[in-house]
Design brief:
0% strand, 2 domains, mainly alpha, elongated
Length: 103
Amino acid sequence: MADMTQGLSGISDLAAKLQSGAAGSDPAGLGIGSLLGNMSMTVICVNLLAGLIGSAYFMYGKKNSNIKVVCWGVALCIVPYFIGNTILLIVACVAMAAAPFVI
């Protein structure tokens, strides 16, 4: 029975923290982490655009049996999630998008 009371008190503590978070305090105090991490809206938009271009490259390369374009498409879909700097992310995505036509 003691385990149940501890579980209920934990739930009530979490509910209190959620309610105080709605009032304007920092939601990072919950300790559950953030779904998007520390990503700005610019990084999210660049990731989305790179993923769209990468998937288009992948489909185009697969349709035409061009392995080079397929590989660059996969790279454009995956690599942006490992780069945290916005400027570096934009430069890398532009370079990877241009690479199938240059190389």
